[in-house]
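assembly run, all chains below
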Amino acid sequence: MIIRGTPKNKNNFILVDSETAKILHKNGFVPMYIDESGIYYKKNKEILDFMERRIKN
Amino acid sequence: MNETIKQFSINDVNLFKDDDSADFALAEIYFLSDGNNAQNCPIPTEVLKRDAKTVLGKFVVAKFDKWVGDVTSHDTEEVIIGYVPMESEVRFVEKDGKTFAVCDAIISKIYSTEVYNLFKEENYRSVSSEFSCSQPNANEMGEGEVDALIVRGITLLGKSVRPAISGANMQIKKFSEKEADEYYLSLNNPLKKFADERDEKLNGKIYKVNKVELKDKSWGDVDKAVLRNKVMSAKNKSILVKDVYLLVESGWEDAPSEHLKYPVMELVGDTFYYNRGALSSALAYAKQENETTVISKVEKLYKKFKLNDKDKEDKMSDIKEKEDVVMAQEETKVDDKEKEVEKKEMSAEEEKEMGCDKAMSDEEESKDEVKEGKEEDSKEEKVEEKSMSEQAKEFAESETDKEYIGKMFSQELKGMVSEILELKKFQETRLELDKTNKLNSIMASVKGDLDEKQFTELQAEGATKTFAELDSFENKVKAFAYEASKGKEKQDDGIMKFAGQGKVQTKAELTADDIFNKYL
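ok done. output:
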């Protein structure tokens, strides 16, 4: 499930495009919101670490 | 062609052998469940059951990635691959300890061929619902119980992503159009519902009414509650109550014991007769209650049955019967709550039958009255006859009568007939379209093997065949094509070949990490 709409506090979320969302979802991160701007994932240590690790590689 | 066959396992053969609809496939979707989910936005069961129906009329969407040959995840560029029909229904199924909302969806084979073919590879795909919701107690991360939701769509997910609700999935249930139709008819067919309802209503019994004979059985021995139950269980109860009871108040169907008063008939076999004691009892009680209408009715019956003199001599009997009536009224009050509401309806047969009964009764009454001797009596009878015919006329024009004939036959029957005609028209159109598609398919498969003349002749012949005859016609065409193509190299310009026959795009060898590195 995903909520159609924009989160109230965008600072708590990471907004990503379709391609990034695909990667994140494949790696077990579940999207929370979707609107016309993109897909929102909860911002937490786990997802930040994952993204940082991927960027370094 | 061989490549196409190779990609399926032998277990899938049954799945595709009846795949005869060019347009649609019917899918069953477990689209939402109660309880918690990966987003920590639990959906209470009552909210699910209340709001799941908002899925009706919404779309099934997906984003197909041709590089990996699979659909992906939620995406801003999802496209519609099917929809949930408005007329379908949402069901609730217990699965894995959760309550799932389940709906049917129609998937387009023509406009989402790639997605449809995914189900041929594996007929179980995860889905994820997209919905707007209200969460009054959500925290900063948007986590919190959902107290209302509106489903916006259902996204088909790729094999590599996991759904937020474990177990949410979509399966193609029926590939055959015929089977899909049957499946839908079994769920939603209004004709079937109508027939079932009619069947239920026809289970009652029709009782006759004899208005010319008077029975003398002690009225105190007649069980009024049983009598009322018999009347209420009858198919023709709407007419019976007016004969058996002298006062029928509105609301009698809901509370018969309160609104059916002054019973004057007893049941013998399957026929109701006037009862001597019941008439005296009703008269005495009506006089006490000053029910002038009832008194008038009883007096008419007295005259009809020549009971005036006897009545005067029989006051003691009246008192006894009066007590019986009072007791009966008390009994009926106690019994009231046991009765359930029944809708008043009546079939054509019973209407006719009752019409006949009434006509026969009137005829018999007339004959009976003619036989009577005295002049005074004759005058009274004439007055009574006139009165009775007026009553009959009023009865024929009453709302009840109009309701039976008007609503039952004019509306339900007309509606039914119109529905049947509509279905027939739809079936004919559908068969014609399918026939054309099938014929084109047959002819396309042999186009390279036949010369132009043969091809045109066979095509013209095929056009005259019915849909059922096309199978044998196909064999004939293939036999011709085989003969004609012996020793020749097959020519195929491909113009008439249908899409969907070819192999699905094979998966690219890019891994998730490759894509990640490429795009981030």
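Chain B touches chain A at residues 32, 37-39, 41, 63, 65, 72-77, 128-133, 138, 140-142, 152, 155, 160-165, 168, 512-513, 515-517, 519-520 (CB under 8 Å).

Confidence is low (pLDDT under 50) at residues 1-17, 330-378, 380-389, 492-508 of chain B.

not gonna interpret more than that til we talk
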